[in-house]
């Protein structure tokens, strides 16, 4: 059964709460039997000080922390001037507060993770879902194959640019995560109608770019949402489970799209996206709760101010916003992902590497028709089913990754042992070595003399290695830059999306110019394989010098997730 807080803190639940004047879906603080803690009452600080400065009383008052993390000494609030300056910082009601998402029961966390995975798949499959119908689009609009690939390119670029706006917004207490998810999902849902009715390639390209832009929050911020409900020991496992949906989404799209493209027509791929994104909007609008802790505490502070009449009650998020002007706040929200990318070598190198992984995956969307239709004479549905090879590789990779990461990371933290981010890197190196193996097998097994299962085995091996490398490096970023997860993941999303969006445009010329009748994608795949071999140096560099690189960082934490 869905817990009441899932409805109360959902998008529509919040709207009903405000429209009713806070009469329905009340919070604990607004119930008649709620007892306000003394520390939030007006004048409590003065009463405490009258008690001869009792240490136990004084400790009930939370004092403001400056930007540098230093705690200011509380002053006597009996003075009206000093009382205005003293701020009582709202926090959770103890370490076991059930309103803290990290204290939710396991079944609620699983349900929430399923919601984020459903949201991710419902938009991510839209990237390549139309690609099985490219030949039909070419005939309808009288365009070249490269022009037919542009809607894929622009969608991917759109969801790379979007997080640079939406992810930092989700870290600000004014917005939070859920409102960003639902509003952008609704716009994505509506955009499927004109996309399905497009009359020319120009309108299709523009609409696909806009749709990708508004699809982006689920792709870039989903990992941060999962981290909201998990303590550090369990975060890598949770993000891995979510990432299965995130990485399988682009492969699931062509599988479904091939059925519509062959039986009904390419436009029905977008009508299907209308149905699936509309279902996601309907369900998540009512049942996806807010999980960003600073946003939840900000809302709690507003409720306590209203109940007690104490204007000194505030939250850390409000303090951070008040220290900046409106223009400074906007610049901070929009500039932070770029700053982290440009000035953090760890982030920059990992972004480049993960961009390579995604680029090759999207480039394969161009190679599949060449191999499976041109060489093995598959029809569209048979070609779509062949994408299952990528998904099988991802699932196998997850099957290896999750128990290993539990043993070397989660279990150690639960036992109180210290763990540094570099614990992830050996598995990243294994994944980095598997990827070129898979690429070489795909390229040279794709021949009329070899059974079609040969190249598909190569795709599965590549996908297994890509999942291992992607997950370990993603968690390396998360543990190193825990305070700025959404911004770090947004910058990563921009890098990989720009590269993955552009590379399919060169896929056809690449394989055509380097291919032969017997090995149509042999040398083209080998070129990509050699690039992957060279890029193995990046995870090796982090294994040898990761601690030194993080020590020079402005944004990195202490390596323990803080």
Range of strand content: under 5%
Strand elements, count:
2
Cα distance spanning the termini: 34 Å
Q: How many DSSP helices?
A: 24
The rough form would be described as globular
Structure keywords:
single chain; mainly alpha; Growth Hormone, Chain: A; two-stranded parallel ribbon; 70% helix; globular
Describe the SSE topology:
Elements: H1 4-8, H2 11-19, H3 44-50, H4 55-58, H5 80-85, E1 88-89, H6 106-124, H7 134-141, H8 145-161, H9 163-170, H10 178-196, H11 201-228, H12 235-263, H13 267-287, H14 293-308, E2 313-314, H15 316-322, H16 326-343, H17 345-375, H18 380-385, H19 388-414, H20 425-445, H21 453-480, H22 485-514, H23 522-535, H24 537-551
Brief summary of the model shown:
The protein is mainly alpha-helical and 562 residues long. Helix content is 70%, strand content 1%.
Walkthrough of the structure:
- Helix 6 packs antiparallel against helix 13 and helix 7 crosses helix 8.
- By secondary structure, the protein is an all-alpha fold.
- The chain is globular and about 85 Å long.
- The protein has a single domain, classed as MFS general substrate transporter like domains (Growth Hormone, Chain: A).
- The protein has 24 helices and two strands.
- Strands 1-2 form a two-stranded parallel sheet.
């Amino acid at each position: 059964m869905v817990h009441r807080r899932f409805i109360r803190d959902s998008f529509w639940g919040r709207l009903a709460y405000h429209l009713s004047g806070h009469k329905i879906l009340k919070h604990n603080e607004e119930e008649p039997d709620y007892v306000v803690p003394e520390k939030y009452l007006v004048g409590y600080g003065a009463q405490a000080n009258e008690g001869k400065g009792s240490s136990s009383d004084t400790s009930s008052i939370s004092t403001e922390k400056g930007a540098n993390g230093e705690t200011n000494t509380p002053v006597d609030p009996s003075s009206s001037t000093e009382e205005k300056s003293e701020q009582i910082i709202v926090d959770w009601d103890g370490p076991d507060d059930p309103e803290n998402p990290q204290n939710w029961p396991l079944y609620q966390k699983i349900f929430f993770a399923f919601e984020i995975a459903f949201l991710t798949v419902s938009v991510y499959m839209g990237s390549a879902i139309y690609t099985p119908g490219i030949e039909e689009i070419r005939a309808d609009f009288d365009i070249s194959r490269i022009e037919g690939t542009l809607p894929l390119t622009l969608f991917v670029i759109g969801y790379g640019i979007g997080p640079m706006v939406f992810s930092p917004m989700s870290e600000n207490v004014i917005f939070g995560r859920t409102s960003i998810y639902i509003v952008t999902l609704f716009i994505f849902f509506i955009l499927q109608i004109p996309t399905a009715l497009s009359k020319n390639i120009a309108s299709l390209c523009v609409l696909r770019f806009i749709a990708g832009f508004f699809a982006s929050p689920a792709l870039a911020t989903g990992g941060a949402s999962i981290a909201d409900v998990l303590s550090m020991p369990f975060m890598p496992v949770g993000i891995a489970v979510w990432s299965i949906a995130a990485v399988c989404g682009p492969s699931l799209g062509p599988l479904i799209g091939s059925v519509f493209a062959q039986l009904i027509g390419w436009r029905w791929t977008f009508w299907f996206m209308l149905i699936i994104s509309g279902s996601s909007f309907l369900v998540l609008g009512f049942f996806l709760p807010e999980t960003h802790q600073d946003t939840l505490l900000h809302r709690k502070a507003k409720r306590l101010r209203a109940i007690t009449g104490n204007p000194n009650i505030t939250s850390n998020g409000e303090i951070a916003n008040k220290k900046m002007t409106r223009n400074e706040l906007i610049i901070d929200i929009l500039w932070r992902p770029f700053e982290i990318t440009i000035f953090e070598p760890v982030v920059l190198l990992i972004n480049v590497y993960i961009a390579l992984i995604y680029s090759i995956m999207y480039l394969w969307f161009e190679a599949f028709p060449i191999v499976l239709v041109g060489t093995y004479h598959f029809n569209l549905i048979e070609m779509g089913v062949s994408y299952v090879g990528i998904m099988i590789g991802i699932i196998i990779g997850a099957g290896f990754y999750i128990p290993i990461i539990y043993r070397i990371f989660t279990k150690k933290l639960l036992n109180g042992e210290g763990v540094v981010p570099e614990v992830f890197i050996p598995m990243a190196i294994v994944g980095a070595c598997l990827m070129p193996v898979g690429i070489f097998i795909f390229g040279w097994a794709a021949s009329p003399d070899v059974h079609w299962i040969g190249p598909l085995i190569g795709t599965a091996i590549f996908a297994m290695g890509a999942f291992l490398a992607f997950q370990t490096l993603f968690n390396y970023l998360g543990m190193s830059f825990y305070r700025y997860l959404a911004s770090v993941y947004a910058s990563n999303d921009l890098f990989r999306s720009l590269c993955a969006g552009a590379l399919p445009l060169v896929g056809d010329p690449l394989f055509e110019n380097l291919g032969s009748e017997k090995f149509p994608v042999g040398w083209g795949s080998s070129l990509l394989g050699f690039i992957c071999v060279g890029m193995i140096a990046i995870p090796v560099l982090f294994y040898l010098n990761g601690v030194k690189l993080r020590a020079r960082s402005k944004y990195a934490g202490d390596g323990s997730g803080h």
